[in-house]
Structure formats: structure tokens, C-alpha cells
């Protein structure tokens, strides 16, 4: 007997017929003799609807109340799935994140999981029941409902699998695995059979929408076997595993695209120690995550700093940098909103020369200008104009022949 955690996203739970289909899939796992816990998202579109209601009734709603409202979407899914299973003769019970002891820390709408007790889950599993748990949410030390941010149900599922020491965590969605690129943009994109934790983490962070990056961090940290599968087919999906010897035979594993980016340019700051720290500490205090950073000395003896971030954080970052510029008599701040980030990811890059040159040549020879560059051992990211984003993804995918079947060879030692 194995202990399996299933997670179903909003598209898998879009209406009552889909919920019944999910119930049949969960029941089939139970019929195999496994203990099953299920983590659910809200029904497709429901969270957006609830957030829209919040802003319609109050243009600046209190974050605590937004969490209170948004958390109800997952509760609907959990209760309906439990009802469907019970109607089929499979004893099931639904719980909120708070009811299973998911304690969170941090601010509303961006909370992080601190701990999960899960004793109630173990108790019901021992009783032979299927346990349904709301994703995306927990409670803080004061008992307030908190949410984990977009995609937080993935994180909930992997965290619960880690606490339960599950044999497998399967993330069910509307795609049948992880692809070399978004197949809606690149028709030749190929499904990957396996991908390493590190590669998946980079791809999730850089725009691949299959998994939330924090869920991959949990899987890597707590050694949770993780698989991405389709709710609607029997395809085995993509296994997310540790790096293996022949993984480095493939230089590039995938190409990702992150839209809704912005660039902030802070102009002519005094060239003195500590000025960059002052800016980025103030931005961090606003709970804003910054990505690419470029610092250059200008022709006037001062310093220019450019950095990128998600468009949703632009207002806070812009106001913060303007305030600091005023304090230190800098020239000012400009912003650019019509930008996107294209990235290539692959563990094999660290041992293969010429990858960066190929990326830059593929973009340049197709008339795509690069505005900023960021690199690590397993990724290269370029900031480009949003209008070039789809074309950039296709030309890089073609340059590295990622749509062609990859034949693994044995590592020679």
C-alpha cells in the first residue's frame, strides 16, 4: 500500500462534470489499495471572480478581507469533490488548510508555510477515508486565514506530501507534462519524460506555468517524488527528479517566456558606497522581488541602476525609488513597461561552451534587440521588447533543435 497525494488545478475542476471525472480518478487510485489525500484549487475562473468582486466593492480592499474572500473558492471545490466521492460510495472528508494545521507566516496574499501538523489527515486516512484539502491557504498564529499567492495550491500539495512522507505527489492539470516550450507558442515543443529539480525550478521561476516555483523548492528540499500529469488522459507525464548522469547530454532543456515585466532605471545616483543597498533594502521592505540588476558608472561621475520586476510591483518600486532619489538629489527615475524576459534553461549548459553565443546570435539574426542579460550556471535570460516575445521563443527553440527527440547516451568516465 502506498500513500499518494493528488493535486487538481482549476481547469480540472471547471464544472460539476469535471469534478465527477476527478472523483473517478481519485476512486481508481483508492481501488488500487492506496491511501489518497487530495489537494484542490478553486474551480476555473473562481479566484479571479472573487478578486474582481473585492475591487468592485472597495478599490483598496484590506488584504485580510481579500484573503478571507479568496479562500472560499477552494472550499467550494473541496466540499463538492468530497460529496461526489461519497455519492460513489467512497468515504471522503474535506478540510481547509487551517483545519489540517497549516500554519503560515508573512503578509496576507503572499504568506509562506511555516509548519503543518496534519494529525487530522493521518487520523482520517487510518479510518480508510479519502481526505480532500483546500490548497492555496492556511492560517497565521492569530487564526486569520492567509493565502499563498497565485499557484499556491501546488505548494500546499507538495508541503502536505512532505509532511505525510507520501510515496508520490502527482500534480494533475490540463497539460500532459512539462514541455521544452509553451506549445501554444511553439507548435514543435516536445514533452519531457524527466527534468531535474534545479531545471524545473528555473523554468517555473522564469515563466513556465506548469508548477509554482515554491512547490519545486519543497520537492527538492524534502525529497518528494513529483510528477506532472494530465487530468484528462492516461499519459504518464513528466517526472521531476534529481540530476542523473546522462542529463548533461542535453545542453538546453527548455525555453521560457515571462511576460508582464517592467524595468526601472534610476539615473545619476551619487557614486558612493551603500547607495545600492539603500535602494534595494527599501524595495525589499515593500515586499517587492527584483530580478535582473545592472549597475553602471555614467559619464558624469554618477551611477545608473536598472532592474526588472513584475508589472504588479511596479507602482511600489517606482514610488520607493523616487523617494530615495529625492533624498540623495539623483536625477530621477524612468520606467519601461513593454518588456518581457526570454530564458534558456539546462544543467548541461555549465559544461558546454558557446551556448550564450548561440542564444545571442539567434535573437540578433532575427532582428530582436537585447536590452539586459542575466546568467547563471543553468540559465541565460534576456530582456527584450514584448512585441518580439513569441518570435524570440520560437527562434531559440529552433536554434537548439529542442523539438527533435533527444537520445540519451551513457556517460563516459
Care to describe what's here?
By secondary structure, this protein is α/β, with parallel strands linked by helices. It has helices at 16-31, 46-57, 63-70, 72-87, 119-126, 152-164, 197-205, 213-221, 275-285, 314-328, 355-364, 389-399; strands at residues 3-8, 35-40, 92-95, 102-105, 112-116, 130-134, 137-139, 145-147, 168-173, 194-196, 226-230, 238-241, 254-269, 293-297, 303-310, 332-345, 372-375, 379-385. The strands form four sheets. Strands 3-6-2-1-9-11-12-10 form an eight-stranded mixed beta sheet, sandwiched between helices. A six-stranded antiparallel beta sheet has the order 14-15-13-16-18-17. A hairpin with a 6-residue loop joins strand 4 and strand 5. Helix 6 packs parallel to helix 8, helix 7 (197-205) runs antiparallel to helix 8 (213-221) and helix 9 (275-285) packs antiparallel against helix 10 (314-328).
Sheet bearing the most strands, described? 8 strands, mixed
Question: Roughly how many Å apart are the termini?
Answer: 39 Å
| CATH homologous superfamily label of the largest domain | Acetylglutamate kinase-like
The CATH architecture category of the largest domain equals 3-Layer(aba) Sandwich
Record the strand order, biggest sheet.
3-6-2-1-9-11-12-10
Count, helices = 12
The whole-number mean of residue pLDDT values reads 91
Provide the succession of SSEs.
EHEHHHEEEHEEEHEEHHEEEHEEHEHEEH
Strand content: 25-35%
How big is the Rg?
A: 23 Å
Strand tally is 18
Number of domains: 2
CATH class of the largest domain: Alpha Beta
What structural class is derived from the secondary structure elements? alpha/beta
Specify the overall morphology: globular
Helix content: 25-40%
CATH topology descriptor of the largest domain? Carbamate kinase
Amino acid at each position: 500500500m502506498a500513500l499518494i497525494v493528488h493535486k487538481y488545478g482549476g481547469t480540472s475542476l471547471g464544472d460539476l462534470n469535471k469534478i465527477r471525472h476527478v472523483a473517478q480518478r481519485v476512486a481508481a487510485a483508492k481501488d488500487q489499495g492506496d491511501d489518497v489525500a487530495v489537494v484542490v484549487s478553486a474551480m476555473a475562473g473562481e479566484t479571479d471572480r472573487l478578486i474582481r468582486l473585492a475591487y468592485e466593492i472597495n478599490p483598496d480592499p484590506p488584504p485580510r478581507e481579500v484573503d478571507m474572500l479568496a479562500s472560499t473558492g477552494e472550499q467550494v471545490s473541496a466540499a463538492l469533490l468530497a460529496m461526489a466521492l461519497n455519492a460513489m460510495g467512497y468515504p471522503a472528508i474535506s478540510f481547509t488548510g487551517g483545519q489540517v494545521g497549516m500554519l503560515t507566516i508573512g503578509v496576507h496574499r503572499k504568506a509562506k508555510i511555516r509548519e503543518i501538523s496534519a494529525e487530522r489527515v493521518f487520523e482520517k486516512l487510518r479510518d480508510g477515508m479519502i481526505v480532500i484539502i483546500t490548497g492555496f491557504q492556511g492560517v497565521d498564529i492569530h487564526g486569520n486565514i492567509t493565502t499563498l499567492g497565485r499557484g499556491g495550491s501546488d505548494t500546499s500539495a507538495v508541503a502536505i506530501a512532505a509532511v505525510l512522507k507520501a510515496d508520490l505527489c502527482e500534480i494533475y492539470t490540463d497539460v500532459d507534462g512539462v514541455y521544452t516550450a509553451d506549445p501554444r507558442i511553439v507548435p514543435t515543443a516536445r514533452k519531457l519524460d524527466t527534468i531535474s529539480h534545479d531545471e524545473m525550478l528555473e523554468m517555473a521561476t522564469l515563466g513556465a506555468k506548469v508548477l509554482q516555483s515554491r512547490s519545486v523548492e519543497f520537492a527538492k528540499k524534502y525529497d518528494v517524488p513529483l510528477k506532472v500529469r494530465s487530468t484528462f488522459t492516461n499519459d504518464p507525464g513528466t517526472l521531476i527528479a534529481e540530476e542523473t548522469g546522462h542529463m548533461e547530454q542535453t545542453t538546453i532543456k527548455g525555453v521560457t517566456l515571462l511576460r508582464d515585466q517592467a524595468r526601472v532605471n534610476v539615473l545619476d545616483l551619487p557614486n558612493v558606497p551603500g547607495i545600492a543597498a539603500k535602494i534595494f533594502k527599501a524595495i525589499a521592505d515593500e515586499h517587492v522581488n527584483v530580478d535582473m540588476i545592472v549597475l553602471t558608472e555614467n559619464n558624469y561621475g554618477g551611477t545608473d541602476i536598472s532592474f526588472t520586476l513584475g508589472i504588479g510591483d511596479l507602482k511600489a518600486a517606482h514610488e520607493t525609488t523616487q523617494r530615495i532619489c529625492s533624498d540623495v538629489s539623483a536625477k530621477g527615475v524612468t520606467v519601461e513597461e513593454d518588456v518581457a524576459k526570454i530564458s534558456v534553461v539546462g544543467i548541461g549548459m555549465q559544461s558546454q561552451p558557446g551556448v550564450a553565443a548561440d542564444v545571442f546570435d539567434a535573437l540578433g539574426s532575427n532582428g530582436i534587440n537585447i536590452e539586459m542579460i542575466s546568467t547563471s550556471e543553468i540559465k541565460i535570460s534576456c530582456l527584450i521588447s514584448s512585441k518580439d516575445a513569441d518570435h524570440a521563443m520560437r527562434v531559440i527553440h529552433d536554434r537548439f533543435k529542442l523539438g527533435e527527440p533527444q537520445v540519451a547516451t551513457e556517460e563516459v568516465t
